[in-house]
Amino acid sequence: MSTNASRQPFDSAAVNPGAVWPLFTVQFLSGAWILTQMSFFPIYLEEVLRLTPFILSVVVAGGQAAGMLAALFGGGLSDTLGSKRVLVIGLAGGAVAALVFQSEWPLLVAALWMLGGAMGSLQTLGGSSYLTRAADPQRLGVLAALFALCMTAGGALGSPLAGWLLDTSGFRLYGLAGVGLVLTTLALAMFVLPAQAPDRESSQQPAGRTWRMARRPAMQMLIGLRFLPTIYYG
User: Fold this and answer.
1) Is residue 2 over pLDDT 60?
2) Are residues 118 and 140 in the same domain?
3) What DSSP string runs through the chain?
4) What is the pTM assigned to this prediction?
5) 77: which of 34, 66, 119, 172 lies 20 to 30 Å off by Cα?
């Protein structure tokens, strides 16, 4: 029997704990801000900026579009710069975008929201690709589930706290608290999360190979499975 087959389901040798647990913490803290912000930002647009439902939806959709465009380039950046650097870039930009609640000028609010959408996409790509490189492939499914649950847990615990802060202090203090939380997460990612070498082999692969893979029926089916629920969620 091979050594891999004899491993227990949660064998500590299957992962790099020094990389995975800080990453889970970063994911948890990111969820505490990103998910609560997504819930309360439309309320800010409606109650403070007095935007109509149509304009509100356009602003929110702008952030989603910016995230989509950033995702097109984020994968390549992860291969060339390394997953940690992409994650750090996303968090640094996210700290700037968290200033969105400090302005009542609609154009600036929309621009910061779009920046936040783009930086959130880089955070997602950087974190998920970091996990893929840090984890044993045989444990990747369990670790990916925990990775996703960390963000959900952060949002679940952060939402009541955010609601209380909004009730007692308003959007400006809530936004400043978000900036502080993102900066704390950024410091954790920079100084605690171990660095990874960029994937030189992947970055040197021709772009045509990527497009050929995207044309495979199984890949198109997977894209569709992600695309259709996202429309409903939006």
Assistant:
1) no
2) yes
3) --TTTT--TT-GGGB-HHHHHHHHHHHHHHHHHHHHHHHHHHHHHHHTS---HHHHHHHHHHHHHHHHHHHHHHHHHHHHH-HHHHHHHHHHHHHHHGGGGG---HHHHHHHHHHHHHHHHHHHHHHHHHHHHHB-GGGHHHHHHHHHHHHHHHHHHHHHHHHHHHHHH-HHHHHHHHHHHHHHHHHHHHHTSPP----HHHHTS-HHHHHHHHTSHHHHHHHHHHHHHHHHH-
4) 0.80
5) 34
